[in-house]
Amino acid sequence: MPNLKLFGRYALLPVFIIMNSCVKDIDLEQANEIVIPPKAALDLVYFTLELQHFTPHNTTGPKMAEDVVRLEFIDDDYIQDGLVRADLNFRCTNTFTSPILCDIIFLSENNSERYRINFLIPGGNPEVPGVVDYTEIIQGADLEAFKQSIKMRLELEMLSGVNAEGGKLQLKSKAFLNLEY
Amino acid sequence: MRCFLYLFFFLLLKTAYSQNKQLLYNFDELPQNLMSNPGAEVKFDLHAGLPLFSQIHVSAGSSGVSLYDIFKKDGNTVNQHIAEALADMSSKDFFSVNEQLEILSIGWRGKNDNYFSGGIYQEMDAFSYFPKDLAVLAYEGNKDHISETFNFSEAAFTAELLNVFHFGMTKYFSEDLNYGFRVKLYSSVFNARSTNNRGAFRTIPSPDAPNIYRHFLSGIDILIRTSGWAPLVDSEKSTGRQTLSKLAGKAFLGGNLGLGLDLGFTYYRNDRLKFTGSIIDIGFINNKKDVENYRYHGNYQTDGIEILFPGPGEDSPNYWDRWEEDLDEHLEDETLYNSYNSWRPVKFNASVDIGFSENTEPCNCHEPTGRRRYDHHLGFHWFAVKRPRGFVNAATISFDKRFSNNFRARIAYTADAYSFSNLGLMFSTSFHNFNFYLAADNLLDYANLAKAHNASVQLGFQLIMNRQ
Fold first, then answer.
1. In this predicted complex, what is the ipTM?
2. Which of B54, B73, B146, B345 could form a disulfide with B102, with the two C-beta atoms 3.0–4.6 Å apart?
């Protein structure tokens, strides 16, 4: 005959432990506050411009070079939903004697301007180039405007000058993207 | 009730060094012992499990982080806790979940004391190493890790859902030795595995290159094999009944099939001293139905997009499309449908059992080896299960005591890679021929389950009978 006292004393011990087990000293409500905050570093565009890229040629007046690149990643969900700050860094080295005005315009699909960055690249020469290291921090309302763009138009205006020795304009760029999910 | 729900939640989300049934191993009065060692001594003549209830086993755990580590109330934010946990964990940490449900279990003693047993059980097993590099990349990004290498080889996981049809025999060879085997037919419902991934991602400053950084994806070869997955995804269009019908069909020999073998022995050095050993699940499943394998491979490096400034009247190239085409050309994304074999996680058990306090009372039990019976047993047990990068080990010391012919209990201490404080308790009791057992480990953590790194519970109901 089974010993019911023993059963009561020992068999129910694990049951008792399990029934009295509990989760203490934690707050699962904090799950709502979890944020995944990656910070991405990535290259953007780069180029090297020589005199023939600027038009009109053979004048001493202002000359322009321009091009457009699509940046499809801006339209991706991970940017649209997660981007909270973008630091765009441009490093330029100019050996033309003329200063060059750099306009970077972010455009929507129908070419409406959404965000603009501009800075002046000082003139220089091959020995002592004009250098600029410019960072644009985009956040808040500006960031919302930036996120509506999908193209980047680059306009480089060489201000008046002879530039008889020729020269080069080199641009490198990167982005630090602060994301939160 | 709230705590019970937490326990349920915990067992579902966390894992133990799953499949170690140290509380059941060598417990020779339960038929479930035969599932860990087909060469175990069987001290009854007939058993029949209560269908679906003869063994319910759930184990879950995490070697690196507990619920408490993330959600503790210490004045810091949950995000600080996550960052700390991420820093503390390594790529050797892992998560696993294992669940077994016996659908049918029967056994009987044949001629020459041999014991035959068979049945069906359903099993779900999932195991994943913590891919630290990828987790850091996803959580922190690469900005603060310039020049560091993020390895894709750290990503390794297996997951499977299957039914196992089995039949085994325990052969009493002599007074000293009995051995046994179990043949298994695996019927897979779902299988996924990704174990030999290669490749790395790295961003370096590149002063001599055209841009500020250079990004590398080097030697990438990522392969995720799946079978049975595609119909489950397609089942979104199906009704619940159709989906269940599909799953049941696969579970009962309509899916991918495999073969397996368990081997085991028990050797008596003398009446008191017993050695056992077993190898479980030497087997594989041939996945050839509903196979979809996803492979991503190649090498790529980029400095960003070079702008060319074409002259007046010339169209600008579509820089973005060219960049994407270049990426796709160098990093190929393929879906393959070739069959593959998935090896089951093989397990090893070995034990030494010392009996003392001889029981000379007559009993209604079967002693096939004719050895003396002891009320108390001191046992040492080693368990290992093969996972993608090697064995996961556990060592247990246990003491079990028979309180009466109908009641026996065991207490066990287990040390493993996750915890040196795993205390488990088990009991088995019978009312006439009806047996009930319950086993739970990591009892010290039950006071606050949030701090537990692992836990498991096993219980079952069955009929166990003797002829005498």
1. 0.86
2. B54
Q: Assign A140 to helix, strand or coil.
A: helix
How confident is the model at residue B19, as a pLDDT? 62
Q: What CATH number should be reported for the domain holding residue A121? A: 2.60.120
What tokens appear for B222 in the block?
Answer: 């990522």
Q: How far apart are CA A57 and CA B36, in angstroms?
A: 86
Residue carrying structure tokens 């801006």? A74
Task: Identify the domain containing residue A77 by its residue range.
Answer: 38-179
Contact (CB, 8 A) for B440 and B418: no
Task: With beta carbons under 8 A apart, name residues in chain B contacting A41.
Answer: 141-143, 146, 203, 213
pLDDT at A54 over 60: yes
Q: Do B438 and A70 lie within an 8 Å CB cutoff?
A: no
Least Cα separation, residue B178 to chain A (angstroms): 31
- Chain A, 148 to 177: residues with Cβ < 8 Å from chain B are 154, 172-174, 176-177
Residue in A7, A21, A25 nearest the CB of B72: A25
pTM of the model: 0.83
Question: Is A7 touching B (CB cutoff 8 A)?
Answer: yes
Q: What residues pair up with B374 in beta bridges, in sequence order?
A: B358
Residues of A in Cβ contact (< 8 Å) with B439? 14
Pairwise CB contact (< 8 Å): A70 & B448: no
Nearest-Cα residue of chain A relative to residue B406: A2
Q: Which residues of chain B have pLDDT under 70?
A: 1-19, 233-238, 363-366, 368, 468
Give the chain A residue nearest B364 (alpha carbons).
Answer: A1
The answer to whether position A30 is within a domain reads no
- State the pLDDT confidence band at A47, using cuts at 50, 70 and 90: very high
Which of B346, B456, B443, B439 has the alpha carbon at shortest distance from B96? B456
Inter-residue contact B186 to B282 (CB < 8 Å): no
Distances (CA, A) of B274 to B260, B456, B464: 27, 27, 24
**Cross-chain residue pair A23–B450, CB shorter than 8 Å:** yes
Number of domains in chain A: 1
Structural domain contains residue A136: yes
Residue A73 lies in a domain: yes
pLDDT tens for B64-91 read: 888 889 998 888 999 999 999 999 999 9
Is omega for the bond preceding A56 within 30 degrees of 0, making it cis?
yes
Record the tokens describing residue A151, joined without a space: 């193209």
Residue A101 falls inside a structural domain: yes
Chain A nearest-CA distance from B217, in A, is 13
Distance CA A7, CA B406 (A): 9
